[in-house]
Amino acid sequence: MSSRDIYETALYLRLSKDDADSDGGKKTESNSIGSQRDILRAYVQSHEDLRIYDIYIDDGYSGANFERPDFERMMADIRAGKVNCVLVKDLSRFGRDYIEAGRLIQKTFPALNVRFIAVTDGFDSLFADRTDNSLILPVKNFVNDSYCRDISIKVKAQQTVKRKEGKCISAFTVYGYKKNPEDKNSLIIDEYAADIVRKIFAWKIAGMSMAAIAEKLNATGILSPMEYKRSLGMKYHSGFEGSSTPKWAAVSVKRILVNPMYLGTMVQGKQEKINYKVKKRIDKPREEWVYVENTHEAIVSDIDFLTVQDLLKFDGRASNHTDTANLFSGILICADCKAPMVKRINSYKGTKKVFYICQTKNKSMGCSRHSIEEGLLKRIVFKEIKKYLELMASYEETARYLEQMNVNYDQVVEYDSQIASLQAEYSKYYALKSSLFSDLKEGLIDKKEFDEFHQLYERKCNELENAVTAQKKIIKDMFQNGVAAIFQLEKLKENLDIQELDRELLVTAIRRVFIHEDKRLEIEFRFHSEIDKPGVLSRMYHEKTSVQEVV
Fold first, then answer.
1. What confidence tens digit (pLDDT) does each residue in 441-484 have?
2. How many whole angstroms from its chain centre is CA 125?
3. Rounded Cα distance, 158 and 275, in Å
4. Fewer CB within 10 A of the end CB, N or C, for the chain?
């Protein structure tokens, strides 16, 4: 094709967010869509062999790849024979992937008899010689690709810093929160959605299955998280879309129930791009997620969240006659095989007998029945819970008294027999570890035995040191938050006068009930580790009282 022919010319314009953010003031202006359009039109007017067929604009699209709507539209017109010349401001506007850009310019376009012109780079394929094609063009494309890679690295580094600082960098917030209008990187509570989140947690604690919760939300016309965002005018899309009008489902309910964001913990970095040239994102391992606590106001309490996590481990299903699980679902466990106990009903001569047996035995897979009658189980558990509540209430009185007596953190740590016992055991193993050097020197043990014992004692010392730290943290929390706050005493005291065991009381006070074959019950109360600490306060209280009485 000669230079005197008329070329049907595609004006291709592109500007990405990276260019706008990183090029600097003057370059950003020169790269603007308006500026590019003016430059290309002026070029066409000064060349009689060019005629504008159409203008193709990808505004806000990265040059790292060629998955752009108007670029694809242009290529379709080229293949249809409507366009035989592509005009761009410079090679970087065409694309920053030097391999793909080189393939298009040096192979695809020539094969389709398409002329390519980059105005400010002074490149015109119609007049380009071997040097332009084999040296200058690849180098310019390589520089553009390197620029895109550098920008990607800088952006990733900035995002990593912001994540570690607990700043929200996602475009959309988790259901129940919204962006703070005064700070786009912080979250505030969306009261309407937050109320739905609280109800979902309350319904789960009350025994409802996740499917039943989803059905209830749909029946009452509550918009799903996706539809709620769209109702607020957000252009929200999710990989979980399945229908034109998404509804609540068990899986969407579970995503809310297990999300630590509702505790005030920012969780980010769950996915990452494969590289700067590919838009596709891949899931990262959970241990690589970024967690930052206390970045925003919590929607649910710690005790409710932890209770739900325990229940989800043995998630009970609703019966055929109700949308809630049975009273002991997720709580009652076989003491031997650790499988959940299942509810069974025997009917004989019009009389029904309700009891629980081991799930493993029920499936004829071993173990034994561990059978216990429901009425007996309720009476025993209720009696123990009442004792637990009364004990908690007495601890509150003790804590108030000790507060008046100015008892401090160091005094409680010094008085705690459990910490003293752990520290004594630590000292024993530390001494044993230290003595190994002299034993090795005196020939009492060889090098292999030295290494084995040293590793054993070192591991034991670390375990004991961690245990002491954990016990001290419990005491520290007691002083920082108050005993009443830790044990939710106000909430528990409301149940002191309750006359019957219900689901909320059961799951609030108890984590597990283990049933032995001889019908013996082993009850694991919530905060079973922490419960010893108010006991320390109580003993201090009684000793101080006794001393005062003597004086």
1. 888 889 899 999 999 999 998 988 888 887 777 666 655 555 44
2. 51
3. 16
4. C
